[in-house]
Design brief:
Layout (H helix, E strand, L loop, with lengths): L2 H27 L5 E6 L7 H11 L2 E6 L3 H10 L8 E6 L3 H6 L8 E13 H6 L20 E4 L5 H14 L4 H10 L3 E3 L2 H8 L11 E5 L15 E3 L5 E9 L6 H11 L2 H4 L2 H5 L2 E2 L8 H6 L13 H16 L1
Parallel strand pairs: 1-2, 1-3, 5-6, 5-7
Antiparallel strand pairs: 3-9, 4-7, 4-8, 4-9, 4-10
Helix pairs in contact: 7-13
Length: about 325
């Protein structure tokens, strides 16, 4: 073989190799990843069988990350915005949705998935043992009879806490809400960082058997405290409740936006919507979803809600600064 011919063969072979490498790179770049990562708040529940079912119907392998309360979750996503740690988020609620949207961490719009009413709960048995009548209004908590009986969540760190703060601002007005909180503090109010601590450790009416028979929780929580006779140990104060809506959304910069949308579709499916009441004690957002029969007896939607129509995103910093000054 002549030198010129050998050079042509080498060049042709090299060119072909480059073409094949380029085709391989192009092909791999256009293959959707099989893994999709969902980041949630700590109270999210998805069983192994549900994860397997999602993989079966979607073709994606689901990975879960839990990141604290809704506030901590939102803050973490904002801090990692330049290098997203997940593809899709569940659990940002209407107290933090504006912040998430303004920070640009969501691709498109947030999708509502479930809702619940944040309300004060009380331990019927413990109050009866002490000979104390159940409270019926937020104002009742200021009375001497209810001193050192109430635990709530910090609005700086908890979405339920922020929900209740907004409710009190709406109920007592811009000139009265701070005085209400000052009186609560003077009457022995306890403040903790998150819902799980308040409900499962400090509250007397749940598994923690704590010292506080009044807790900030949800209107649906009494369904989780039903005894063998079908009667709930707890009940709600149907005053000063806040309608909380939770959302899911594709994260901006997601590595697998297709998989992220598949997760949202699954959360809205009849299969998953039906689990919200029993697993997370929230109402499913899809209206024709069946609700457990026990809920009709032991839970109820608040007759009136407060604060959920306020512009929380605009006022959050001002409200939290004023609230924090009371509890310093």
């Amino acid at each position: 073989m002549q030198l010129a011919s050998r050079k042509n063969v080498i060049i042709s072979a090299t060119a072909m190799a480059l073409v094949l490498i380029g085709a391989s790179v192009y092909h791999s770049a256009n293959v959707a990843p099989k893994d999709v990562t969902l980041i949630t708040h700590d109270s999210f529940v998805m069983t192994k069988s549900q994860i397997a079912d999602f993989a079966k119907v979607s073709g994606f392998n689901l990975k879960l990350i839990k990141a604290g309360d809704a506030g901590a979750l939102t803050n973490r996503l904002i801090l990692t915005k330049s290098a997203p740690i997940a593809d899709v988020v569940f659990g940002i609620d209407n107290t933090f949705s504006g912040r998430a949207t303004d920070a640009g961490i969501i691709e498109g719009k947030l999708t509502p998935t479930d809702f619940g009413d944040v309300c004060l709960n009380y331990d019927q048995e413990r109050l009866a043992q002490r000979g104390i009548a159940p409270p019926t209004t937020l104002a009742d908590l200021l009375k001497p009879a209810y001193r050192n009986l109430t635990v709530v969540e910090n609005p700086n760190t908890s979405s339920t806490g922020l929900s209740f703060l907004a409710a009190t601002i709406d109920k007592f007005g811009p000139n009265g809400w701070q005085n209400y909180w000052k009186q609560l503090k003077s009457n022995g109010l306890k403040v903790v960082d998150g819902w799980e601590t308040a409900y499962y450790i400090d509250f007397s009416g749940s598994s923690g058997r704590g010292d506080y028979p009044i807790v900030l929780s949800y209107a649906s929580s009494p369904a989780d405290e039903v005894n063998a006779r079908g009667i709930s140990r707890t009940a709600i104060i149907n005053d000063g409740c806040f309608r909380q809506t939770e959302y899911a959304g594709v994260l901006a910069g997601a590595k697998n936006p297709k998989g992220a949308q598949a997760v949202i579709n699954y959360l809205l499916s009849p299969t998953f919507q039906a689990t919200f009441p029993t697993a997370m004690y929230m109402y499913p957002y899809v209206s024709d979803t069946m609700i457990p029969a026990s809920w009709s007896k032991n839970t109820s939607i608040a007759s009136r809600t407060f604060g959920d129509h306020l512009d929380i995103n605009t006022n959050r910093k001002t409200w939290l600064k004023a609230w924090s000054a009371i509890f310093e």
